[in-house]
Amino acid sequence: MKNLKKISLLAFLVALVISCATMKNDANVPVSGRVESIEGGKDGYTAKITTDAKEVYFATISIVNVGGPQNYKQLKIGDVVSVKGERWKTEDENHIRVTEIVSVK
Q1: Looking at residue 95, what is its pLDDT?
Q2: Is residue 5 part of a domain?
Q3: Cα–chain-centroid distance for residue 19?
Q4: 24: phi then psi, degrees, rounded to nearest 5
Q5: Which residues belong to the signal peptide in this entry (predicted)?
Q6: The domain spanning residue 94 has which CATH number?
Q7: What was the pLDDT predicted at 21?
Q8: Which range marks the domain in which residue 96 is found?
Q9: How many domains, the chain?
C-alpha cells in the first residue's frame, strides 16, 4: 500500500511538471498577420488576425495592457500587424492578450 501511494504521488508530480512545461508562455515571440475583423469592447477591442500560416488569433488590445495611451493604436481591417503578449489556446481558438504592438503596416 505504501508503494502504491509513492508511485501515485510520483506519477502526479511527473504529470504536473510536464503540463507546466507545455504551458510555457511565448510572450517574446510576435504574432504577425493581417487584421480580418475588429470587435469593440469596454476599454479596447479584439482583432481577428490571420497569419501567413493560416492560423487565426483573437488579439485583445486595450490601453491598460499596452502600457497607456501613448502605446495604444487603433488597428483597421486590412492592416498587417505584429503583436506580442500572453498567448493561450482554447479547444479551437488561439488568443493573445497584447502587451506590445510591434508594427502596423
Answers
A1: 97
A2: no
A3: 18
A4: -55, 135
A5: 1-23
A6: 2.40.50.140
A7: 46
A8: 31-104
A9: 1
- Over residues 30-67, the pLDDT tens digits come to 999 999 999 999 889 999 999 999 999 999 999 999 99
* Residue 8 belongs to some domain of the structure: no
Question: What's the residue count for the chain?
Answer: 105
Residue with cell 485583445: 60
pLDDT score of 22: 47
Joined grid coordinates for residue 9: 504521488
Residue 65 placed within a domain: yes
The 10s digit of each residue's pLDDT in 58-98 is 999 999 999 999 999 999 999 999 999 999 999 999 999 99
Whole-model pTM? 0.74
Written in H, E and C, the secondary structure of the chain is CHHHHHHHHHHHHHHHHHHHHHCCCCCCCCEEEEEEEEEECCCEEEEEEECCCCCEEEEEEECCCCCCCCCCCCCCCCCEEEEEEEEEECCCCEEEEEEEEEEEC
Whether the CB-CB separation of 63 and 74 falls below 8 Å is answered with: no
